[in-house]
Design goal:
By secondary structure, this protein is an alpha/beta fold. The chain has three domains: about 90 residues, Udp-n-acetylmuramoylalanyl-d-glutamate--2,6- Diaminopimelate Ligase, Chain: A, domain 1; about 230 residues, Mur-like, catalytic domain (UDP-N-acetylmuramoyl-L-alanine:D-glutamate ligase); about 150 residues, Mur ligase, C-terminal domain (Protein-Tyrosine Phosphatase, Chain A, Alpha-Beta Complex), CATH 3.90.190. About 35% of the residues lie in helices and about 20% in strands. The protein is built from 16 helices and 23 strands. An eleven-stranded mixed beta sheet has the order 8-7-6-9-5-10-11-12-13-14-15, with helices on both faces. A six-stranded mixed beta sheet has the order 16-17-21-18-19-20, with helices on both faces. Strands 1-2-3-4 form a four-stranded parallel beta sheet. The termini are far apart. The relative contact order is 0.08.
Length: about 475
């Protein structure tokens, strides 16, 4: 694509009449620039892309997009906001790929990963080729790619959508984080279905208040558009049991389908029955009542399943096929995942890293725990400090044996993080063990028949970040080895 044609997609039109080189790629990392690239200067928290524009030109950049004039021997196009411009240009350069896919976006504090995986399975079982973007990985068909962020920046995102189009993907399912919405990473992404799971405390280190956090989540629904396309309708799938849904309903002009348990909803679970091996409920729907038996446990699992049913239903998949699919779901890696090495007590690994998710998981554990409940939990460094005492309080309230340890301390002192947690449980009985491996070993060494151990916070993660180093660490492997060494 020629530079003039590409720049023409920016509005208001950028007044550029200089050279018109062929643009072969768009990059915002100077190390990835090759001959013919358009280099976009992005101001980050730690580095400023404008400082690397010269290096990009040396690597072959044919043009540079910047927020100020730069003394370079290639065309420099100046715009007010390169992040916003990057989303527009990426969408144009890759041929507006999201418009060629059926797009499902999921936002909320908890449940995004599990819900996205369930939705993806429903579409796959319905005979579609699927794409998945989220916390764990990006998936195109059966190909899996590593990710850095839950929701990639706009350039990577549109490039990924293009790959999906080339690979003839029908439906793309993705997690949409609050950070991505605020940063504009999903600008230009044409969602057909937007799903809301829930809103509880998280990321207040960035959003500062729950009101700002809620506003960030609401952007997904306000960005669904304001037109009624009867051939390709758009839907918001909202949790009727979460108060934030009322605001999101006002923010969108899309059709709304609600789901819930406690409050009236279009899709509602009633007569719920749980055991240690699964959950059954009556699904009340616009198409009548259906019996649903899932292999997942916990009230939170029912919400995830209801949200998934809603997203599939508004996408035109038959209810009977949806139910058959969700009933075959065995679980998602690191989400209430059982570690079974033949022991006579239960070990569960879960990603729960917010007060609400930890409480939900521990309440579920209590429903089948016969004796003691151990909870090994930590809090991440360089993240929301205000939730640390809350996490500790919940662990002490719902577990008989709370064990505080490290999560991913990052640049913070692990001991200081645990001290923040301990502020919430003065006078309570708990154990603090900084080394996460030792904490897990301690729980497993002291567990007896009928006990349950919950190892919370890291779930599917296979690493631990301490200082500026990343170490191999998988709660599931550490737990299994500790069991085998008993």
């Amino acid at each position: 694509m020629k530079l003039h044609e590409l720049i023409g997609y920016l509005h208001p039109f950028v007044d550029y009449k200089g050279e018109n080189p062929e643009i072969t790629s768009i990059e915002n990392d100077n190390r990835r620039v090759t001959a013919g690239s358009l280099f976009i200067c992005i101001k980050g928290y730690t580095v400023d892309g404008h400082d690397f524009a010269g290096s990009a030109v040396k690597n072959g950049a044919s043009a540079v997009l910047a927020e100020r004039e730069l003394p370079l021997n290639v065309p420099v196009i100046v715009v007010k906001d390169t992040v916003r411009a990057m989303a527009v240009l990426a969408d144009a350069f890759y041929g507006q790929p999201s418009q060629k896919l059926h797009m499902v976006g999921i936002t909320g504090t908890n449940g995004k990963t599990t819900t996205s995986h369930i939705i993806e399975k429903i579409f796959k079982d319905a005979g579609q080729k699927t794409g998945l973007i989220g916390t764990m990985y990006t998936k195109i068909g059966d190909q899996i790619f590593e990710v850095k962020n839950t929701t990639p920046e706009s350039l990577t995102l549109q490039k990924t959508f293009k790959k999906m189009v080339v690979e003839q993907v029908d439906t793309a399912v993705m997690e949409v984080s609050s950070h991505a919405l605020v940063y504009g990473r999903v600008h230009g992404t044409d969602y057909n279905v937007a799903v809301f799971t829930n809103l509880t405390q998280d990321h207040l280190d960035y959003h500062k208040t729950m009101e700002e956090y809620r506003k960030a989540k609401g952007l997904l629904f306000s960005q669904l558009g304001n037109a009624f396309n009867h051939d390709k309708p758009k839907f918001a799938v909202l949790n009727s049991d979460d108060p934030a849904s009322e605001e999101f309903a006002m923010l969108t002009s899309a059709h709304i389908l609600t789901y819930g348990i406690d409050n009236h909803a279009d899709l509602q679970a009633a007569n719920i029955s749980m055991t240690a091996s699964g959950t059954s409920f009556d699904l009340i729907s616009p198409f009548g009542v259906r019996d649903v038996n899932i292999q997942l446990i916990g009230k939170f699992s029912i919400y995830n399943v209801l949200a998934s049913i809603g997203a599939a239903l508004v996408s035109g998949i038959a209810l009977e096929d949806i139910i058959k699919s969700v009933e075959s779901v065995k679980g998602v890696s690191g989400r209430f995942e059982v570690v079974d090495a033949g022991q006579d007590f239960s070990v569960i690994v879960d990603y729960a890293h917010t007060p609400d998710s930890l409480e939900n998981v521990l309440k579920t554990v209590q429903q089948f725990a016969q004796k003691r409940v151990f909870c090994v939990v930590g809090c991440g460094g360089d993240r929301d400090r205000t939730k640390r005492p809350l996490m500790a309080k919940i662990a002490c309230e719902y577990a008989t044996d709370a064990i505080f340890t490290s999560d991913n301390p990052r640049s913070e002192d692990p001991d200081a993080i645990i001290k923040d947690m301990e502020e919430g449980v003065k006078g309570e009985v708990y154990t603090s063990i900084i080394d996460r491996k030792e904490a897990i070993q301690h729980a497993i060494k002291n567990a007896k028949a009928g006990d349950v151990i919950l190892i919370a916070g890291k779930g599917h993660e296979t690493y631990q970040q301490i200082g500026d180093r990343t170490f191999d660490f998988d709660d599931r492997i550490v737990a299994r080895e500790a069991i085998e060494e008993r």
